[in-house]
Amino acid sequence: MAKSLLVISRQAPWSGPSAREALDIVLAGGAFDLPIGLLLLDDGVFQLAPHQDAKAVQQKDLSANLQALGLFGIDDVFACSHSLAARGLVHSTLAQPLDSAAITQLIDRYDQVITL
Amino acid sequence: MKFAIALFSAAHAPSSRRALLFAKAALAGGHEIVRLFFYQDGVYSASNAIVTPQDEQDIARQWRELVSAHQLDGVVCIAAALRRGVLNHEEATRYQRSAVNLEAPWALSGLGQLHDAAQAADRLICFGGP
């Protein structure tokens, strides 16, 4: 059986390529039909912020990639509820909010974890 | 034990040195390294254009020597490398760039190699941050 992998993305979408590169690992895993999950933590929850204007910072929009995860068979997308609240963000339909205890259980459930 | 090692930091970051020491210790302990995968700023740890002062550690060179000496599978993510200007001869030619700063024993390949290594290994060990 394939090993499961949790990618923890901790960077804001406009703080450099890290958020995009974390998402690329998830999408690549989805392309290989691997059991893979994504947890947005700390500034990573900014990827869920509504009404992002990528053009204003001369960047490509990352939120479309996030929305495409379902098409790649990746349904296990989570966000730290504490990180969301600390940044004044409301829960998004794109990611299931988890508290600290649930995040501990989530990390335990996966065979491998990559934090970016 | 079979290890896959992922590195996300440049050669001047302490985590690149830590990853190098871990890899050496794993091999010295009789373990197998199924693949090294350099991603994000980790691609800089494979650059042959780094020049360090004589009284400082040349981590990129030490990585190169380790991979050659043990004939390890050293893979650098091609998308991350192109974005950061780490190019082998083939890519420099393809994109008409004058500099080539990646060569054997390193190979450029895609993220599938990270997943493949993680599946093949007993443990995936990641090194990133400072």
Automatic annotation (TrEMBL), chain A:
One Pfam family cited in the UniProt record for this chain: DsrE
Broadest EC class assigned to this enzyme: transferase
MF annotations from Gene Ontology: transferase activity
EC number(s) on file: 2.8.1.-
Protein name, entry field: Sulfurtransferase complex subunit TusC
Family indicated by similarity: Belongs to the DsrF/TusC family.
Record key words, sorted: Transferase
UniProt lineage: Bacteria, Pseudomonadati, Pseudomonadota, Gammaproteobacteria, Pseudomonadales
Automatic annotation (TrEMBL), chain B:
UniProt keyword Hydrolase, yes or no: no
Single GO MF annotation: sulfur carrier activity
Signal peptide limits: none
Matches recorded under InterPro entries: DsrEFH-like (IPR027396), Sulphur_relay_DsrE/F-like (IPR003787), Sulphur_relay_TusD/DsrE (IPR017463)
Keywords: Cytoplasm, Transferase
Alphabetical GO biological process terms: tRNA wobble position uridine thiolation
A GO CC term assigned to this protein in UniProt: sulfurtransferase complex
Subcellular location field: Cytoplasm
Enzyme Commission number: 2.8.1.-
Main location: cytoplasm
Family, similarity comment: Belongs to the DsrE/TusD family.
Protein name: Sulfurtransferase complex subunit TusD
Organism: Pseudomonas veronii
Primary gene name: tusD
